[in-house]
């Protein structure tokens, strides 16, 4: 509990530092230098038309016309709602049981977590436990249907893709995330 | 209200009032200049690149979607100007690796005595954020300094929302672990 509080406190300090950290003033003549490089442009017909459509409009409403119009609009809405209403409402999607496994025969890691899109990449939400029998770190999680990106976080510092994951994806900055696809209520093991 | 005012300014610029652009320059020159300074580490280069970014934004203003916020669009252009400069200068080095052991950069690894002895305060935290790789640093700055939504961060950095969340999470973890050594994980 204390560790969790410390972690939250440290994150608050970091976020506060980013919010209020010092910034450097730009050179005093920067605006002039920028404005000096700009050339006035004659708007094309297309731009003038677009601006004409996008300009703020003033709408005047008079009760004499507004009341019948609103009555009609409400009647149409009610009719539309009745026409398209589903006979049976669907409940929340069913969760499927997924088993994450990271083999570690010599128990070289001190701790391992699963971080992924399903837990907002927060390590503390999905800590794995070590099974001496399986010689592996294991975690069972309940996930909604769909594809989920994830990684193993080893010793709190190393992000390790799942060597047994059937699919991976580029995370956008040169690393690979593993992907698990959950297709319903069947139990899945990784 | 600010977005409405900006939409009106952009409308004037597109209709030929070039001087109206000065309002936007004065409003955003500070964050754009500081972005360039973080990316280049040199004041003169930062000023030149900030100019380039604003000029590019002016030239492409007709493609700006006026239903969106102007600043994230400008920031995306500015970041591209900085990246182009980085490529020209040979500073854009992406390492594609499959080996998990090299996923953690050497400088991010824990220095045990430092972690035990150091206490985290605002100045140290800010210095540590500035030392992060730009992809983590910019994500943190966009979220916590400029209040970008996750969608805006993802679009600005050209990545998915999951990847944007991961950058924030990793960025915070990297800074935190420099001070607690991962003891609070």
Largest sheet of chain A: 5 strands, antiparallel
For this structure, the quaternary state is heterodimer
**Beta-strand content of chain B:** under 5%
Distance between the termini of chain A: 31 Å
Specify the number of helices of chain B: 9
Q: Determine the fraction of residues in helical runs of chain A and give it as a percent range.
A: 25-40%
Question: What is the H/E order of chain B?
Answer: HHHHHHHHH
Low-confidence stretches of chain B: 93-118
Q: Which two chains share the most extensive interface?
A: A-B, 65 and 74 residues
Which keywords apply here?
heterodimer; A: 190 residues; alpha+beta; Immunoglobulin-like; 5-stranded antiparallel beta sheet; 4-stranded mixed beta sheet; 4 helices; 26% strand; B: 185 residues; mainly alpha; 0% strand
Short description:
The complex is a heterodimer of chains A (190) and B (185). With 190 residues, chain A is an alpha+beta fold.
Write a structural description.
- The complex is a heterodimer of chains A (190) and B (185).
- By secondary structure, chain A is of the alpha+beta class.
- The longest helix of chain A has 22 residues, at 63-84.
- Chain A has a domain at 96-189: Immunoglobulins (Immunoglobulin-like), CATH 2.60.40.10.
- The two termini of chain A are 31 Å apart.
- Chain A is built from 4 helices and 9 strands.
- Chain A has helices spanning 2-20, 30-36, 45-54, 63-84; strands at residues 96-103, 112-116, 129-131, 136-143, 146-154, 158-160, 167-170, 176-182, 188-189.
- In chain A, 31% of the residues lie in helices and 26% in strands.
- In chain A, strands 2, 5, 6, 7 and 8 form a 5-stranded antiparallel β-sheet that branches. Chain A has a 4-stranded mixed β-sheet with strand order 3-4-1-9, with no helix packed on it.
- Chain B is an all-alpha fold and 185 residues long.
- Chains A and B meet through helix 1, helix 2, helix 3, strand 5 and strand 6 of A and helix 1, helix 2, helix 3, helix 6 and helix 7 of B.
């Amino acid at each position: 509990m204390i560790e969790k509080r410390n972690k939250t406190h440290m994150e608050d300090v970091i976020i506060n530092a980013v919010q209020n950290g010092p910034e450097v003033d730009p050179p005093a003549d920067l605006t002039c230098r920028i404005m000096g490089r700009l050339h006035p442009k004659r708007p094309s017909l297309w731009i003038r038309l677009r601006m004409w459509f996008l300009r703020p409009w003033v709408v005047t409403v008079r009760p004499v016309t507004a009341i019948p119009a609103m009555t009609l609009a409400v009647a149409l809405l009610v009719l539309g709602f009745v026409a398209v209403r589903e006979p049976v409402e669907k409940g929340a999607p069913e969760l499927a049981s997924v088993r994450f496994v990271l083999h570690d025969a010599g128990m070289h890691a001190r701790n391992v977590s699963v971080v992924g899109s399903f837990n907002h990449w927060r390590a503390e939400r999905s800590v794995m436990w070590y099974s001496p029998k399986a010689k592996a770190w294991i975690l069972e999680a309940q996930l909604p249907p769909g594809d989920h990106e994830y990684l193993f976080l080893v010793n709190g510092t190393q992000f390790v893709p799942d060597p047994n994951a059937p699919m991976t994806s580029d995370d956008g900055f040169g690393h690979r995330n593993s992907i698990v696809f959950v297709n319903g209520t069947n139990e899945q093991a990784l | 209200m600010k977005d409405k005012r900006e939409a009106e300014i952009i409308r004037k610029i597109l209709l030929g009032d070039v001087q109206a652009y000065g309002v936007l320059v004065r409003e955003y020159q500070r964050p754009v200049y500081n972005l360039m300074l973080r990316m280049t580490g040199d004041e003169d280069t930062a000023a030149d690149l900030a100019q380039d970014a604003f000029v590019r934004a002016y030239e492409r203003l007709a493609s700006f979607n006026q239903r969106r916020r102007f600043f994230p669009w400008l920031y995306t252009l500015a970041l591209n100007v900085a990246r182009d400069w980085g490529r020209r200068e040979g500073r854009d080095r992406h390492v594609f690796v499959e080996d998990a052991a090299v996923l953690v950069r050497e400088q991010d690894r824990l220095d045990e005595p430092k972690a035990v002895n150091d206490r985290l305060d605002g100045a140290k935290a800010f210095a540590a954020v500035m030392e992060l790789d730009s992809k983590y640093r910019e994500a943190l700055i966009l979220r916590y300094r400029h209040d970008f939504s996750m969608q805006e961060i993802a679009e600005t950095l050209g990545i998915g929302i999951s990847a944007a969340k991961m950058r924030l999470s990793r960025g915070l973890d990297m800074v935190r672990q420099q001070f607690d050594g991962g003891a609070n994980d």
